[in-house]
Specification:
This protein is mostly beta strands. It is built from no helices and five strands. Strands 1, 2, 3, 4 and 5 form a five-stranded antiparallel beta sheet that branches. It is globular, with a radius of gyration of 13 Å. 10% of the residues are buried.
Length: 71
């Protein structure tokens, strides 16, 4: 579905969000799920008190652009 991207600078595609459950830590969970519509990522997030929660994000194929809401 998605061609590999070589020789490209890396960038943060899922940054921490102030005042949210993932305000201090954002780290990948299990391997991403590749679908026809994009890439679904389940991740771990922690707030400023280091209380961890699970989140999800969906990315559009080639654009490293998140669609929908992080939950």
């Amino acid at each position: 579905f998605f061609p590999p991207r070589l020789n490209r600078p890396s960038k943060i595609v899922l940054p921490p969000r102030p005042n949210q459950f993932d305000s201090r830590v954002v780290e990948p969970g299990p391997p991403p799920i590749i679908t026809r519509d994009g890439i679904a990522l389940i991740y771990n997030g922690a707030d400023d008190h280091l209380i961890y929660s699970t989140g999800t994000a969906i990315f559009i194929g080639h654009e490293d652009k998140m669609i929908g809401n992080q939950t």
